[in-house]
Every structure is written in C-alpha cells, then in structure tokens.
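Amino acid chain
________________
===
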Amino acid sequence: MEDRPRIKNEAQYDALRDKGYSKEKSARIANTENAGKRGGSASTYEERTKSELYEQAKELEISGRSKMTKKELIEALRS
C-alpha cells in the first residue's frame, strides 16, 4: 500500500483520483468533516453569501477566486 496519511473516506478519495484530481486535493476533500455524506442539509450555493462561497473556494484552493463574482464562484465550486 502507498505510504500516505489516513483518508477518512477512501471511496471518495479513489473516485476523485479516478477523475484526475491530484493526491493532495483528493485527500483534502476526502478528509473534510462531512466527506462523502449526503442528506441535503447544506444550503444551495445560490442561498449562500459570496463570502461563504469564497471561503469554500479557498478551502479547495480554487485559483482566481478573489476576482470571481458570486456566479463564477458557484460555477467553479460545481466543476
């Protein structure tokens, strides 16, 4: 097995790697507090403030986020 830190959600990590995400980004996403959970408890992107969207984009290290509009942040978070 590869020498890597523990991953909270291995299935999500593997799925992200299969999609072409880097090891680091896949691990970061798969290790979030709610990694892989579903249930619809989160508000939709449109209901969030631009500041909230920016913070989420920052956590995911989306480049160019500081110059994005709310609509652009939503598009970047969904892709």
